[in-house]
# Entry
Amino acid sequence: MNDPDRHPQSFAAWHEGIFLPRQAFAGLEPPYSNLRQAKTVVLPVPYDSTSEWRSGSRHGPQAIIDASQYLELYDFELDREIHKVGISTLPQVEPVLSSPQDMIKRVYEVVKGLIQNEKFVVLLGGEHSLSLGAVRAFKEAFPRLSVLQLDAHADLRDEYLGTKYGQACVMRRILELCPISQVGVRSLSWEEKEFLTQNKLRPLYMSDLASNAASVDGIVESLSQDVYVTIDVDVFDPSIMPAVGTPEPDGMSWRQVLDIVESVAIHKHVVGFDLMEFCPGEGPSSCAFLLAKLAYRFIGCAVAEKAK
Amino acid sequence: MNDPDRHPQSFAAWHEGIFLPRQAFAGLEPPYSNLRQAKTVVLPVPYDSTSEWRSGSRHGPQAIIDASQYLELYDFELDREIHKVGISTLPQVEPVLSSPQDMIKRVYEVVKGLIQNEKFVVLLGGEHSLSLGAVRAFKEAFPRLSVLQLDAHADLRDEYLGTKYGQACVMRRILELCPISQVGVRSLSWEEKEFLTQNKLRPLYMSDLASNAASVDGIVESLSQDVYVTIDVDVFDPSIMPAVGTPEPDGMSWRQVLDIVESVAIHKHVVGFDLMEFCPGEGPSSCAFLLAKLAYRFIGCAVAEKAK
Amino acid sequence: MNDPDRHPQSFAAWHEGIFLPRQAFAGLEPPYSNLRQAKTVVLPVPYDSTSEWRSGSRHGPQAIIDASQYLELYDFELDREIHKVGISTLPQVEPVLSSPQDMIKRVYEVVKGLIQNEKFVVLLGGEHSLSLGAVRAFKEAFPRLSVLQLDAHADLRDEYLGTKYGQACVMRRILELCPISQVGVRSLSWEEKEFLTQNKLRPLYMSDLASNAASVDGIVESLSQDVYVTIDVDVFDPSIMPAVGTPEPDGMSWRQVLDIVESVAIHKHVVGFDLMEFCPGEGPSSCAFLLAKLAYRFIGCAVAEKAK
Amino acid sequence: MNDPDRHPQSFAAWHEGIFLPRQAFAGLEPPYSNLRQAKTVVLPVPYDSTSEWRSGSRHGPQAIIDASQYLELYDFELDREIHKVGISTLPQVEPVLSSPQDMIKRVYEVVKGLIQNEKFVVLLGGEHSLSLGAVRAFKEAFPRLSVLQLDAHADLRDEYLGTKYGQACVMRRILELCPISQVGVRSLSWEEKEFLTQNKLRPLYMSDLASNAASVDGIVESLSQDVYVTIDVDVFDPSIMPAVGTPEPDGMSWRQVLDIVESVAIHKHVVGFDLMEFCPGEGPSSCAFLLAKLAYRFIGCAVAEKAK
Amino acid sequence: MNDPDRHPQSFAAWHEGIFLPRQAFAGLEPPYSNLRQAKTVVLPVPYDSTSEWRSGSRHGPQAIIDASQYLELYDFELDREIHKVGISTLPQVEPVLSSPQDMIKRVYEVVKGLIQNEKFVVLLGGEHSLSLGAVRAFKEAFPRLSVLQLDAHADLRDEYLGTKYGQACVMRRILELCPISQVGVRSLSWEEKEFLTQNKLRPLYMSDLASNAASVDGIVESLSQDVYVTIDVDVFDPSIMPAVGTPEPDGMSWRQVLDIVESVAIHKHVVGFDLMEFCPGEGPSSCAFLLAKLAYRFIGCAVAEKAK
Amino acid sequence: MNDPDRHPQSFAAWHEGIFLPRQAFAGLEPPYSNLRQAKTVVLPVPYDSTSEWRSGSRHGPQAIIDASQYLELYDFELDREIHKVGISTLPQVEPVLSSPQDMIKRVYEVVKGLIQNEKFVVLLGGEHSLSLGAVRAFKEAFPRLSVLQLDAHADLRDEYLGTKYGQACVMRRILELCPISQVGVRSLSWEEKEFLTQNKLRPLYMSDLASNAASVDGIVESLSQDVYVTIDVDVFDPSIMPAVGTPEPDGMSWRQVLDIVESVAIHKHVVGFDLMEFCPGEGPSSCAFLLAKLAYRFIGCAVAEKAK
# Structure
């Protein structure tokens, strides 16, 4: 017997067409899933220690990767075989439970390593506080970074349940690093409202989107050239995304989110994005599939753009 | 140790910031949850003995109250801290199982007591037949009462499964008391169709809403000054409210329901409302959250209106 | 005691109004459920051996029939008591597991027998490959048959997982028999895209429907006079139909599907239809109810049309 | 085409080996499922209007019948093909919801009709209060009837939640008709304890069974010759029967229940039995299968015994 | 209207027999539920931030309290109306998410306050790490405290996932405070095995219980006079307690646990106990009921003992 | 950046202690998970096309592997670090759906390859028919092979649902290859009973185990030196293994199965084993954990034995 661990190609030959691919995103196999060649890296982080009410976003990354096995690799709307840019799936990041800060630091370090190797990062959460780690790393590499946040909530509390680093505070911390644009907000605390007023910030509320007071162009224009996109999946309407911790009615449609994502990917330099707060046990498996398709489409738009 | 049962304020002091609020609606604490001061009273009635097919609306009230813990007290669309009007949550009414009439009578008596104390009543069911008890009490206090019913079904059968007091007959009984306006109907029995024709009644069907044959203004105009609103939650589209016994396709959106509720609350004197037939086990937890938010918004519009 | 098996009418007399109807579609009882008199026959086929990922469409037929017990027999939108055309429900077809071809052959034989007796066939799957058996039988009886396919996927692969007769290949096989029109497609493999191009075929994509590039009239015109309609229920949007194996986002609404179904039923001679790939365990019970109502409405439009 | 409704044998011939049996208990087909010839009749009653907490026993009968499709007809432990005694499955009794008494009366009337036709009755509940209807009918036919109750609870309250005819009171009402023996009790209210003491009654508690203070022989001896057996399925240990409303720990094993059932069937004249309070949604499908096998085994022992 | 908040007795009079009790443990009402008079205090702590794999023990306390509503207040095996000792249920402790230590400190402070008021503490978790807070408080009050641990795991790791205060380390930390006796262990890491050997500790393994190498008397003798009992509910066999994060096969029966609990309560001075790591979503509702009954029985044995 | 695909050790160095291991059985990492060095190979086969009733055993292998991540690598009952023998997890075998025979052939070929490389094979199903493929391969390598079957059913039908290669026929086909010993059977069809009698075969029934008519020694003695062990997981009692298609009451305990497995591993040359028919969706996650622990313990006993 040959050494299949040393020479994976001969191992592959042995079971040509017999085995299913290992659980990489989209079921990719080498060479497309090789870390070295891949432009894109999927980073799963199963951590949800500061979530309230329904927990379970720790199971989000695996559920999205599982669902992605059933994606068509060819995207006929883009008319492009997206996987050919290379998408490598890292193993899940082991949680560190001493404090939210320590976990955020771990994400920061991993993302920093990926940036140094010029990867396009797709962070799959896990809870929203982890986005802070990614943004910190990108801010160092792209000093004029701005962040586009798609979210039902502003996440602008200064402190919540005894910590400044929980999911309810993540955009307050990110705002201390760089400008943000908020889209899809439909719930605010009094404290957040005050903070927005004092800082002359204004999210695009769902009511703005409904009344056409907000346009995709306006969203794009509000951003700097280098953009990180953070998507709390509760931005979607609960009809298509009930699998979240706090499912606010009257959310965005698949098409609304896609229009923004595609336009930003075309007109800006997107450096990475994340899909956070997905709790697969709280809804049907259609939710995981929707997010897998969103991630794949986003990669298709953003990484190809970068390649030009 | 002080006597915390006698002197709740000192008890509160003892665990300042340590305990979660008791399970009152919206997680309210004294003084906002005090029965005496509160303008609004939430009345949970866990009864579903005449339901067909999928039962479980007995679990509806608790599920809505649980979900309401995660509401923001500040409603930024109304720009109002709604809870300051005072919302007291009564304990659940104990079912009486001897007959539906006996249970309806119990609801009547409790609601009558609340009316005498000038409370705005929010009844959380439980099955739809209970609304008859509330309407009886309100009709006595407001002789020119009309009832606005949001419902996928007409509920106008004369008798069903051996009783005239089951959920399928509730509006037939209410119509014997006062005028009704029906909105959102999309399923009728032959008997109901005949009854409507003979009595020259005409619900607003979903097809009317779709074709703009019905307007919010028209709905408001069809009502008398004093209005009780009864909402069978199956009026919503199953995409956002699958958690009902008979989920008819092609229902109302969040925005459609809200527009009616808000307009009625502004232009009429709403004396109380109910949310009935919610079966939390039949759908994701987003359903409970939607109903909690609907109740809170409705209180925000209706109780404030009254205050003017 | 009389012989209730021989003389069902006396048995019926014995328990007049005491027993619920047996589990026929829509809870029908004789004479409406009698096979001899009924114009329409519901054929449940609990088979899902070639499905990938989430299986469970074997449970689809029973779930639809269960839900149909709660349909109103009177359809007030059509203003018609549909059941009076007669709807008989056959027992479930026993699966044959030696190969997909053998199972397809069994469906072919049963449907052929029903056609010979001039029944309107409603096939409830089970997996999509079974439609091939029905189409074969109808093609023999109606040589100029065309097939209207409502589906999120093209199902045009030549072979998949070692067989040419799995669900992913069913329309490729049907296309070898007769022309097809595809509506609602929103996912294609590279192989399918190539095949479509080479054969100058073009499905109506969801993007066509969104942009009004496709019209209901156009769909109707694309069909021959004799039409079989095959509905993979994943054509619906996952918000109202998550209970499928591969729930693609951005699907059709209840109203969009109904408009097509009603128009085809009016302008063409529909010989039968199927509802396939429903996996009841993957979503709320609202899904089964939607499909029961769709089947009943479709019968209402199509069988009455034929009667003219 | 022949008339399959008139001549079922020719219909059977048409689809010989193609269709699955209709949903009769154990999947039986004629002649074994014919009501006229069958010694045994399965009577499903989907009613649960007086249940507390977790409802859902209305779904119990269908779940047991569904599971029974997968029974082996041959029972190798008894070495007997049980189905040959004939087991006919009636349609489900339609609930009457005006009051528990009215529903109990309906069960009484149906069972009385079956007794007049010398059937062995297997009642599938539904809630426990229905057993009162069956016992009333059997008491009339067998004046020296006694009732063996297998149950975690005594069900001896005089009134509960406003009615004397709810599930918590059923054995109090039955005791007014005939003697009872209680086995497996492991929860008592203070009122029930007092009542037992005053009436010099003593259930066999689980602790008696554990300490061998109770024997199967003793249970058999406590009964008169004509016996009706009522089984609240919560008598089983929650490890094998969690699917009940009030699952008391420390219950009976499969073997313990079977030993009693078999011994009573051998030594006494069992006139009928019931399986009550099964809530299929509260546990895995193994629960339904266990009950289907229990019912089949019980029929095997009891009906054959009677035949001697 | 009187002021029901000020004068609860008149409020009670108003709805005499109409309302269900508030959600206190066992559904108790005043005076039995009054904090001042009650000997026993139930302390629910919904915190699970350091749990691995399946989370959800945050929902444990509410599920146990919900199930306890259906307990009989009279325990006929003890022949005692346990609730008369008084059982007050505190509101849920609000989590603090800055670090596990901070949360443990919060539990410590609350328990300390309860000890100062001479309460018997029943802690409902929540994850096992919280027991450290309770033990710290009891150790200060009872310097010769020992801890009896019923658990499938030793929880003796020094550090895990970056913290010394997670659930996997809790007994290592407790052992630094006072002696422990471990019962029911059936899984050990290599590190734990080494630690046990070096420290000459030896748990009672399940194999000891099976082979009668361990006796209840031996367990009791291993403890000092003042005992705190910590129960990780995974000590039970998964057949009756699947609702845990790591369900090890071959666990303890209801009777085995009860024998130990009752014997310790009789022969020692139990100062409090906890039920930890219950994840209600992972198993049927029978699990919550079992734990409610266990807690009530334990109170019955332990608090009465103290009263002598 | 180094090439992590070529030099995994440097990649490992980069994220030392940050990432969770990939999803190999027991979470093993190189060198223990390397295919070349590992004595044991875990072969997951997600195929269930011939299953009746509840399907879903296709999800069995992944669920067992997921659960195995939480095993302690050290087995303190065996006092052995089992993983050091090396356990490599192959990717899942891709189903071939043309016919059961084709799929069985695929398993045969893969297992044959593993035998040629002297691996100890652990097959994770998937449905029971796949065992035939494994036995064929082992029979070629070990001409005097016998098969020990732990199963609730005999699986000795000659044909079922149109095929001789379905799960209900697998042991009939295996018996055509080599002798078998059946343990735990508690359900037989009449055909199977006849076949057993005619062939003078006699399974060890559960009643034999209960009455001590069967001993572990007797089971071991009935086998030849080279043994393949096939475990249909429905051999376990439904209390600990409800997650199967046909959950027969009165099954084997964890301890009973383990005693047999351990004794066979000690006294015979076990060449491989399988765990089949596990349907994770039908029961709690404790089922998956039990099977993961069983597989690991079996490897611990069998592979070490071989090593002597």
Q: What stands out?
A: Residues 156 and 172 of chain F are 4 Å apart (CA to CA). Confidence is low (pLDDT under 50) at residues 1-13 of chain F.
